[in-house]
Amino acid sequence: MNMDTDPGVMLSQCFIAVDDHDKALAFYRDVLGLEVRNDVGFEGMRWVTVGSPLQPDVEIVLEPPGANPDASEADRQAMAELLAKGMLRGVIFSTPDCDALFARVEASGAEVLQEPMDQPYGVRDCAFRDPAGNLLRFKQRSAA
C-alpha cells in the first residue's frame, strides 16, 4: 500500500452503551448540545444517534449494553454490570473552552471525575461520567 495515497478512511460512527435513553438524551442533547439524528426501536431495544452540528458526518450511537444480537443473556448481564460499574469506555470530545464546558456540565449534576487542568501533553481537559457511568473527557488544545 502506498502511504502517500489518501486511504479515504474517516470515522463515521462510534457507540456508547447506555441503560436509560431518556437520561442519556437529557445529557447528550440538553447539556452537551448534540443534535438527535435518529431514534430507532427494534425488538425491545432502542438506538439513539446524536452528533455535533459542527460534525455532520460523525455520529455517536447510544445503544443498550450487549446490543449485539449474538450476545447471550449472560453476556448481556455482564455488559450491564460493567456499565453500572463505569468500566466501559466512553469518548473524548474537543471544545474551544474547557472551563466553560466544565461549568455547564457540572451544573447539570453530572459526576465530576477531574476538574479542568493543563496536561503535559498539550491539552487542558476535564472528565465526567455520563448518566450511565461512561467516562467522558473534554479537551481543549493548548494555545502553544
From TrEMBL:
<dbReference type="InterPro" id="IPR004360">
    <property type="entry name" value="Glyas_Fos-R_dOase_dom"/>
</dbReference>
<dbReference type="InterPro" id="IPR051785">
    <property type="entry name" value="MMCE/EMCE_epimerase"/>
</dbReference>
<protein>
    <submittedName>
        <fullName>Lyase</fullName>
    </submittedName>
</protein>
<feature type="domain" description="VOC">
    <location>
        <begin position="10"/>
        <end position="141"/>
    </location>
</feature>
<keyword id="KW-0479">Metal-binding</keyword>
<dbReference type="GO" id="GO:0016829">
    <property type="term" value="F:lyase activity"/>
</dbReference>
<dbReference type="InterPro" id="IPR037523">
    <property type="entry name" value="VOC_core"/>
</dbReference>
<dbReference type="InterPro" id="IPR029068">
    <property type="entry name" value="Glyas_Bleomycin-R_OHBP_Dase"/>
</dbReference>
<dbReference type="GO" id="GO:0046491">
    <property type="term" value="P:L-methylmalonyl-CoA metabolic process"/>
</dbReference>
<dbReference type="Pfam" id="PF00903">
    <property type="entry name" value="Glyoxalase"/>
</dbReference>
<dbReference type="GO" id="GO:0046872">
    <property type="term" value="F:metal ion binding"/>
</dbReference>
<dbReference type="GO" id="GO:0004493">
    <property type="term" value="F:methylmalonyl-CoA epimerase activity"/>
</dbReference>
<keyword id="KW-0456">Lyase</keyword>
